[in-house]
Design brief:
- There is one protein chain.
- The protein has 3 helices and 14 strands.
- The chain is mainly beta.
- The chain has 2 domains: 101 residues, Thrombin, subunit H (Beta Barrel); 103 residues, predicted glycosyltransferase like domains (Thrombin, subunit H), CATH 2.40.10.220.
Length: 220
């Protein structure tokens, strides 16, 4: 890993995080305060996720908290097979100022009819929600850590040079980092398979860098 040549790496224990994978979702209805959505993967209650809504050739990033979730069934297209899907209610937590204006503009341009009136606003169905995406987390365990990267263990492979948004949990804080996959090695032991992944930190906010620096000082 290139970060090992630039900064000292420390072996750490009981440190984890998530790699965020962008996934398409179906929006059942939406308002300025929240939405009802459908996904192929289970969402955790009370967890905040990042939603990406494409509007005028740009993506509007919104944070939303899951307030309810249920498992439902659906017939697979062109088949009689039944597949599980999840429906969830989202409460947006950062629809202020410019973000609110952009979201209202998106709803107005894509709505097809009013669904219902409720406290906090009117819900609308959309003509097309294909440009709404969700960052889904997949966990990892940290083995080595430095100021510019880390070596982690995962249960899934990652593509070399792929860029991902990363969550790193340190001392009760969630650091949000833009990372690049610099290394991927498969490890097989009897019937189990794991992967050593080298992540290079491409971009990290200054306050998150300060938290990371302080943590590494305690490790040292």
């Amino acid at each position: 890993m290139s970060d090992g040549r630039r900064h000292r790496r420390y072996e750490v224990e009981e440190l984890s995080g998530n790699v965020l994978y962008t996934s398409d979702i179906e929006v059942l209805n939406i308002s300025i305060d929240g939405a009802a959505i459908e996904t192929k993967r289970r969402l955790e209650l009370n967890r905040e996720y990042t939603f990406k809504i494409k509007h005028k050739d740009e993506f509007l990033n919104l944070r939303g908290r899951i307030v309810w979730a249920v498992l439902v069934s659906r017939l697979k297209k062109d088949s009689e097979d039944i597949v599980p899907v999840y429906r969830a209610g989202v409460k947006f937590v950062d629809t202020l100022s410019a973000k609110a204006d952009a979201l209202l503009s998106f709803i107005e341009e894509n709505r097809i009819r009013k669904v219902e009136s409720r406290f906090g606003g009117i819900r609308f169905k959309l003509a097309d929600s294909g440009e709404v995406k969700l960052d889904m987390p997949r966990g990892y365990e940290v083995k080595k850590l430095s100021l510019s990267g880390m070596l982690v263990e995962t249960g899934y492979p990652m593509e070399l040079d792929a860029h991902h948004e990363i969550e790193l949990f340190i001392s009760g804080n969630t650091l949000r980092i833009a990372g690049r996959v610099a290394y991927c090695k498969e490890n097989r032991e009897r019937d189990s398979v794991s992967y050593d992944i080298g992540m290079e930190f491409v971009k990290i906010a200054e306050n998150d860098r300060e938290l990371l620096t302080g943590f590494l000082e305690t490790v040292e």
